[in-house]
Amino acid sequence: ASIPLATERLLREQPELSGGLALQIGFGAGLVYGAQVVRLP
C-alpha cells in the first residue's frame, strides 16, 4: 500500500510531474517482486 501513498504525496508536492512516466517497483517476503511503468495522472 505504500506505493500508491508515495505517488499521491509526490504529485501533491510536485504537481508539474503530472502526465509523466514513473517506474514503480515493489518487493515482499519470499523473493516476490513486481514492477510497472505508469503514466502519472
UniProtKB/TrEMBL annotation:
GO terms for molecular function: acyltransferase activity. Keywords: Transferase. Residues 1-39 form the Beta-ketoacyl-[acyl-carrier-protein] synthase III C-terminal domain. Pfam families: ACP_syn_III_C. This is 3-oxoacyl-ACP synthase. It comes from Brevibacterium epidermidis. The lineage of its organism: Bacteria, Bacillati, Actinomycetota, Actinomycetes, Micrococcales.
